[in-house]
């Protein structure tokens, strides 16, 4: 695959997405790819990344909601292919800068959440200050106001 717009040659995740760096790709399509985390925090710990280089979760806007939803869908599909049957016992989310190790948007997919050790819970658990769940991110993005095109100014009436 040729590098697409938004490719960063210095980014390890861009290289994985474009198959320039070895990684076990578990699921892939034109927009996303999923592979195991090299430092797993749970029995099943995968990363879902967009092929196009995007910054961290705080750089996203309301128009990225469908992308985040597709990332979540792919993560759940990979869990199901890995025989995870209880999708209520999972963690889906993003590290908040400066706690993001790779500056390329990536969704952490972890299961079973109920069996995560204390270290993993500190990093990926509901009480973690540096981990934003995918649902929390979607709520934040959906609460953003739609931006008006410059030529469409609100009236003074």
UniProtKB/TrEMBL annotation:
GO molecular function annotations of the record: catalytic activity
Catalytic activity: adenosine 5'-phosphoramidate + H2O = NH4(+) + AMP
Segments forming domain HIT: 12-120
Signal peptide boundaries: none
One Pfam family of this chain: DcpS_C
PROSITE patterns assigned to the protein according to its UniProt record, in alphabetical order: HIT_2
Chain ranges for the short sequence motif Histidine triad motif as given in the UniProt record: 104-108
Catalytic residues (UniProt): 106 (tele-amp-histidine intermediate)
InterPro entries membership: Histidine_triad_HIT, HIT-like, HIT-like_sf
Coiled coil feature spans: none
Similarity annotation: Belongs to the HINT family.
Protein's recorded name: HIT domain-containing protein
Organism of origin: Albula glossodonta
């Amino acid at each position: 695959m040729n590098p697409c717009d938004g490719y960063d040659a210095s980014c390890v995740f861009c290289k994985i997405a474009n198959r320039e760096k070895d990684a076990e790709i578990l699921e892939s399509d034109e927009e996303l790819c999923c592979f195991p985390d090299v430092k797993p925090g749970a029995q099943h710990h995968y990363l879902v990344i967009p092929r196009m280089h995007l910054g961290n979760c705080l750089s996203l806007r309301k128009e990225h909601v469908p992308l985040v939803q597709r990332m979540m869908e792919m993560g759940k599909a990979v869990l199901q292919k890995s025989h995870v049957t209880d999708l209520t016992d999972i963690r889906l989310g993003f590290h908040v800068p400066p706690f993001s190790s790779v500056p390329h948007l990536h969704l952490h997919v972890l299961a079973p959440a109920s069996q995560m050790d204390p270290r993993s819970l500190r990093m990926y658990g509901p009480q973690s200050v540096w981990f934003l769940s995918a649902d929390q991110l979607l709520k934040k993005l959906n609460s953003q106001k739609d931006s008006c095109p410059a030529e469409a100014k609100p009236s003074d009436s």
